[in-house]
Write a structure and sequence with these properties.
Layout lengths: L1 H26 L1 H19 L1 H11 L3 H4 L2 H10 L16 H11 L15 H13 L5 H33 L4
Amino acid sequence: MDFLVKFAEVFTGVFQAGGKNLTGLITGILPTLLVLLTTINALIKLIGEERVNNFAKKLTRFRLLRYTLLPIMSLFFLTNPMCYTMGRFVEEKEKPAFIDACFSFAHPILGIFPHANPGELFVWAGISAGITTLGQSAMPLAVRYFIVGIIVIFIRGNVTELITTLMMKRKGAAK
């Protein structure tokens, strides 16, 4: 009988913990995410989608911007998974590298801009848990994570573009 009581307590405890977590999200990060998403959508509407698209086309001309600023802006303004649609502005041989840069930056952006990839917020929560448990601000870590993410996406974008070009040449698809 004690086994059934313990099982029922543990079973119910799982849902109580989930409820506490949900309450924390509703009173914590969700309002921030809603305000950020609303602000970003309003900003795009104010600037104009065509202007945003034209700006993105100009960015793709430069390798440094193509694999740093464009993925950052894509994730910031369009969020995950819509950010990948900005790949339409890059050349065919650059598309895998752009997507790789976006994939690779989907977590480093979370510490500062959680609206960019809210479905993966648990990753940032896990990374920052140790610091917040100590009662310290996680923002210095978030900034470092963001900066390292920019360096990583630039490297990955270039390496992926090189590999794609080599593979396309091997298949006779690239000039």
